[in-house]
Amino acid sequence: MAATFDVRFEQTQDAARALRAYSLNLSAGGLCLRTRRSYDVGSRVRLQMSVSGEDFELEGIISWVRDDAEAIGVRFVDVREEDQLRLQRVVGSFKR
């Protein structure tokens, strides 16, 4: 699904600093984000996002970084089953 919605990161090393980013692509397994902040591949991140009225708090691992495009890929990890089902439902609703 390609859409623009707000995503907020909670840095594990500094939870008080929140970073806003914009999603380029979302699936039930992860997302691609535009962000000006640099990340290392393999870093763990916590993020909050709201999609179609559904709020999610998820953990992820940075799976790739494209500095030239100011984009990163985040793979969701340790997702609770109920959140996984909600993600699948939200992503599915965009494909109709």
From TrEMBL:
InterPro entries: PilV_Myxo-type, PilZ_domain
Gene Ontology molecular function terms on file: cyclic-di-GMP binding
Pfam families, alphabetized: PilZ
Coiled coil: none
Highest taxon, organism lineage: Bacteria
PilZ domain location: 14-91
Protein name, per record: Type IV pilus assembly protein PilZ
